[in-house]
Amino acid sequence: MTQPTLVFLHALGASGREWDLVRRHLPGLPSLALDLPGFGERAGAGHAGVAAMADDLADTIRAHGLTACVLVGHSMGGKISTLVAARAQAGEAGLAGVIGVVLVTASPPAPEPMDEDRRAQMLDWLSGGRIDRADAEAFVDANTAERLPTPLREQAIADVQRSAPEAWQAWLERGSLEDWRAAAGTIGIPALIVAGAEDGDLGEDAQRRWNLPHYPRAKVRVVENTAHLIPYEQPEALAALIVEHVAAVAPSILPGDFARVLGSERVSRRTRAAMLARTRPVMDAESGWTEAETATVAALIAQVLPDQGTDQALARRIGAALEGPGDGWRFADLPPDREAWRRGLATLDALTGGFAALDPAAQTNWLERIDAGDIRIDGDFHFSPEQMTLWFQDVRAEIVRQWMATPVAMAAVGYDGFAVGGDGPRKQGYVRTAADRIEDWQHAPETTA
Known about the structure:
alpha/beta
């Protein structure tokens, strides 16, 4: 299976080196550990604001042609990761490959909660022009639950000292205080939010209050015996959590060639955003199905699309689609879609004694009989034989329709009809034909003879 590239962003006063130990525990996973402007090997770049750092990350993703990646942001890097994830969700070109996010004791889109005395102290460290050794030691030791082993501690201290003073000051005075909540919005990309059990300002409570609301598909995990510098304190435990998250998001990876087309300028932002939304898992609560209904729909999928197997993810997607307004088309002898599915599923289970529990051959036999109207219904069942025949026609059509609407299915059949113009001069849609305009005559008042 194709593995996503992990793109690591460091904390204030750190560099890409802070991820060295974590990366050693991620065998087989490609990764990039970036230095943000003003830090690490890019200290000479000086100050870069939040917007510029987000642009820098987005440009890096495009420059590397990443068609599947997970953003891993620590502290300051977490705020930048969230903003780029929001841009990816909105359909920005070249970011279609962002399939997951990991936030490690992350600064939120909101102004970062920080003790103001500590902020003033950290700014005062620049009074001599640069951060001296004693202040760098104080910073590292204050952000760990226990004193780091000497080699790691020395590396962390060295990174603090080589940070560009203007970058350090800009983050504390401006970047950490900027409010990007509106720009971040609600992000459907699956996320893992990691907190240190002994972190102060950005511990579990802060993560749940400030970062979790932006990620409805997020899981929150707490790492024991750590404070703020988890990549140094518990790299193996953090790596294990990242591996778990990668496994969860890997099914949404699209073939590279297809992802490149989807991310190209030939696709409009609106189309790209809609298609990417279909790559993300639908939660149980969004589907509207009970556990038993999900199992029955998944069993029906296995009969209609044998190559898919008992696909509960697609079953939940169908349920979520039925929660919407629908397209207005249905058989006159059936109730509205959601009600029809519920009653049809109930009838199917009552007829068969539990459809999902039957072996595939028995399931096929029952469906063939339903399709032919060759069933007898005694007692108080939800649908008549004639209604069940119509319902099963709808079931087949909806299963195939929802499957074909997914980018995975489009890639499987080689469909690229969505890449027909983008947002440039050859704008996608009906602009050239004016088919999206209402003519004057359509506003004319009705007349009577």
